[in-house]
Amino acid sequence: MSPKIKIYHNPACGTSRNTLALIRNSGQEPEVIEYLEAPPSKVELINLIEKSGLSVREAIRQNVEPFQTHKLDQQHLTDDQLINFMLEYPILINRPFVVSELGVKLCRPSELVLDILPNPQLGTFIKEDGEMIIDQNGKRIK
User: Fold this and answer.
1) Which DSSP string corresponds to 84-110?
2) Separation of alpha carbons 65 and 71, rounded Å
3) Known catalytic residues?
4) What is the pLDDT of residues 54-108, one digit of tens each?
5) Cβ contacts of residue 62 below 8 Å, gap of 6+?
6) How many angstroms separate the CA atoms of 45 and 102, rounded?
7) How far apart are CA 21 and CA 18, in angstroms?
């Protein structure tokens, strides 16, 4: 049995959809967690951020309404305060986070997922915007 891959997914996000499709193009069906419907626990969120090597500020989405409304760019806010906002407003969690046996990554751009997929790509992959990422031989272009 192949090791389990998890994706914290937002189906309305093109980057998230491309990342999910790249995982599937490696022949694996990941556990899909629609984090807006089923947000991670505080411990899970902290682990995702820490294991991805990001700071809390790097993992928070800035171009969404709760970020501006709550003035989350203020430097005096602690990581714990920012995490609590992310849990209260899951739209603030940047996506997609992917977890595999090879590590955890925030996959922006989507092809970053290729660095943590244990299996090779099975064929051509073209992102929704038309950019080819994987050639017909399953080889990474960029």
Assistant:
1) HHHHHSGGGB-S-EEEETTEEEE-SSG
2) 10
3) 13
4) 999 999 999 999 999 999 999 999 999 999 999 999 999 999 999 999 999 999 9
5) 72, 73
6) 18
7) 5
